[in-house]
Structures are given as C-alpha cells and as structure tokens.
Amino acid sequence: MSKIGLFYGSDEGNTEAVALRIRARLGEERVDVHDIADVTQLEIADYDQLIFGIPTWDFGQIQSDWEEFWEDVQEIDFTGKTVALFGLGDQFGYGDYFLDAMGMLHDVIVANGATIIGHWPTEGYEFEASKAEVGGSFVGLGIDEDQQEEMTCERLNRWCRQIADEFGLAGGADSVNELED
User: Fold this and answer.
1) Is residue 180, in this structure, part of any structural domain at all?
2) Which domain holds residue 115?
3) Which ranges of the chain have pLDDT less than 50?
4) Residue 12: CB atoms within 10 Å
C-alpha cells in the first residue's frame, strides 16, 4: 500500500493540528505527515497521493514556510499525482481574502499537472471573496478555527470520508475513523 504524503505549513500550530487530525481519521498507517519547512521537492515527488494544508495570512498572504518553498512548488511536475487541499482562514476578519492561499496553491499545482480531489461546498461560510472558490465550491476543505471552530470536527469527518473514496483507499469512506475531537 502506498502512503499519502500530507504536507502543511503552520506558524501558530492550527494547520499542523488539523493535519494531525486528518491523519488520525485516515490512519497513521496510510498517511505520512511533513512540515513544508523541512522538505525538498524530492520528498513530495515520492508520493502519488498528496494532501496539502495551507493557511491564509492577513490580506491574502501565503504562510511563511510555504512562501519560502513557493519557487520549489512551481518546479514540481504533478502529472499523475492526485492532490487534496485544505486551507485555514478567518472568514470574518479577512472575508475579502478567505482561503486565498489555498486557491493560489491550487492554481500552481493544477498548472503543473495535478488532479485535484476534495472539493468542498461554500455553504455555511460567510465571506466576501476567495481565490479558492470555483463554481460555488472551494478547491479543498475550508477550515476557520477563529470563527467556526465548533464546525471543524464534523467538516473533517465528512471531508476525510469524501477523500478516502476519491483517493480509492481500501474500504473507502467506511475505513475512516469518525472522531469527536
């Protein structure tokens, strides 16, 4: 069984905590978790199935570790790779830029051949604009630990069931650990 590579960037720990919650749902035996600050292009290239976690900072800015790795991401050939995205943002404090970093990352990896799974509905969110919104859905799971922390657990459970099926994992959605963390 090939593993899923989960790569995240996190300044204050929220994105890291969500990454670990995703691994707990999908199973430690299925997911390798990496801080983007500590990896190379080759480590990403080792995986055919990937999950990227990226928070949006302030006025639509990319998290600092992802920003330092940005040129490397732009050089990776994602042809034949399946990628799910999750992003963190503050829809009320920065509603004009909600999840923009996830949208920017999406655009780079799609331009380099990635197949994206894990699209997520925008219903239940209140924001003005987002680079991560395409056709009424986000390009990945949207998490708002600042304003809707109480919704994170259920969103993670649903999204992990969805991507388990979309990744074609053995047992699909039924193999996901439903947690109440």
Assistant:
1) no
2) 4-175
3) none
4) 12
